[in-house]
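Dear colleagues,

I hope this message finds you well. In preparation for our joint manuscript, I am sending the Alginate export domain-containing protein (Candidatus Jettenia caeni) sequence together with its predicted structure, so that both groups work from identical material. I would be grateful if you could confirm receipt.
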Amino acid sequence: MKKALWKTCMGGFATAVFCVATCTQSFGADGKSIEDMEKELNALKASVSSLTEQIESVKQEKLTADASSDAKEDVEALRNEVNTLKEEMKTAAQAEPTLKAEDITGNVYSEFAKRVKLGGQIRTRAEYANGFYQVPTSNATLPGGSGPATTRNRSVDDDYILNQTRLWADADVNEHLRVFIQLQDARTFGAEGTTVGFAHAYDENTILDIHQGYFDLKKLFDLPLTVRVGRQEIIWGDHRVIGNFVWSNVGRTFDGGRFMWDTDAIHAEAFAAKVDEDGWTTAETDNDGNSDENIYAAQLGFKKLIPGALLELMYIQKNDQDSVANSATATGFDPVGASDDVVIHDFGIRIDGKVPGLDAIDYTVESHFQGGEYGTQDQEAWAIAARAGYTFKELPWTPRVGVEYDYASGDDDPSDNDHKTFDNLYPTNHWQGNYGFIDLISWQNIHDFRGNIKVVPTNKLTVQVDYHYFLLDEEEDGWYFANGLLATGTRPGGVGGSYASNDDNLAQEIDLTVSYDLYKNVKILAGYSFFRPEDWIEDEIDDIDTHWGYLQTTVTF
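The corresponding C-alpha cells are as follows:
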C-alpha cells in the first residue's frame, strides 16, 4: 500500500510542478499567443483538480490505515506528502489570476465583448438626370432640385455623386437586453463648396447624425414580447405606406416606441412615433400652439391562416397638428394658415404568398381605405395594389415574368368639402420600382399598369426590365411626384383649382436594372430609366422627356 500511495502522490506532484513551470515560462517576455496561454491555463486547472482528487484518495487510504496499528509510520509520511501537495496547489492558485488572458489584453476577450457585433457600410452612387429634375430633392444633401414650377418644368442636365457611410454596433447585452447604435454620414461630393473644412454646407444638420439608436427589451415577462425604444427604421410589407426610404441618401427613421409580439402563428406590433416636434408656437391658429406631427400604428399578421401566404391587417393614424402648413396646404386643398389639422385614419389589408402546390406563382395584394380630416375637408379615399409573377425554374436563367396593377383614388373636385385623393403616408416608393424607379410617381390619383421580366444569368448577376403605363384617376386633381407634392408646384388658379386637361393619359416609363455581386461584401447596382410624357403632361406642363441613369457600389463589412 505504501508504495502505491507514494507513486500516486509523486506523480501528482510532478504534474503540478511541470504545469507551473510551463505557464510561468509561457507568460514571460517571449510568451506564446493568447490562445496557447489559455490552453496551458486550462491544463494547470485540470492538474490542480486531479491533485485534489488524489488527495481525497490518499485521505481514504489513510482512514483505512488508521485501523491498523502497524501502519502509523506510513500514515505520518503520507500526511507530510499531502501538506507538500497543498502548498503546491496554493502556489498555483495564487498564480492563476495573473495568468488570465483578459487581464493581459484588456476586455477584448471578455464575455460581453463576444456579444458585440461591429459593422459598417459605404454606399456611393453616381447619378445623371435630364428632364424632370425630381430625383435629387429626396437626398437633402444636394442643393437645387426644387423651387418654383418654372424650375421643375424645364429640362435639366446634371450629374452628381452621393455618398453614404454607416457604422454600427449591435450588442446582445444579455437574454433580455439588446442595444443597437448606427451612425450615418450622408453627403454629396463637392456640395460643401470647398475641400478645406466644411464651409457653405448645403444642409449641415443632415450630414452626420445618429441614423438609428434604440434598445430592445426582449422576452418581456417571459413572453414572446419585445419592446423597442429609440430612433429606428420601420418597414411594413412592400414599403407602400411605411418604409425606411432606403434609396434616399439620408433615409427615414421614426423616433418612438414599438411593441412587437412574435410567435410561429402570428406577428403583432404597435408603435407611436414623433415625426415632427415644433414645440409651442404662436403661429398656430387653433390657439393651442401645438404644431407637432405624430404617427400611431398597429399591425396584426397571421402566418398560417391562409395556406402558403401571410395575411396582415393594419391601422395607421397620421396626426399632423400643424394647422398653418400641412399636406392639405402643400397640395393646394387648403389655404396657408387654415385652422384645421390633418388627421387621417388608414385601414389596410395585405396578402403575400405563393400558390399552394405551385410555388412558381407568387402574388401580393394590398389595399387601404382612409377616413378622417384633411384640413377643412373630409378624407374619403382608397387604394389597391396587386402583383403576380411566374418563375420558370426549369429554364436557363430562371426567368420570372410579372404583371402588376396599382390604383389610388383622386379628387374630381378639389374645391368641395371632400378630399378623395389617397394619402401615400410614409412610403419608400422606389422599393422594387413600385411606381417606376425614376421616382416621378406616387400612390396618389393614379392607375399604373406594369409588366416586367427578371433573369438570373449567373448566381451573381440579375437583370430586370420594367414597363409602366400611367393614367390619372381624376385629371382635375393633378400629377403627384414620389414625395407627394404636385408636379406643377401649385394648382392653377390657386387653392382648390382644377386642371383644365380632359385627357387622363399621363406618361410611360421603361426601367433597366442590373445588379452584380462582385464579391461577398461588394455589390454593384446600375440602372437606366426613360420617362415619356403623354397628353396630360403635354397639356398642363410641357413635352419633356426624362432620362436618368446611375451606378452604385455598396461595400459592407
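For the figure legend, we might mention the following. Residues 2-105 form one domain. The chain is about 20% helix and 40% strand.

With kind regards,
E.M.
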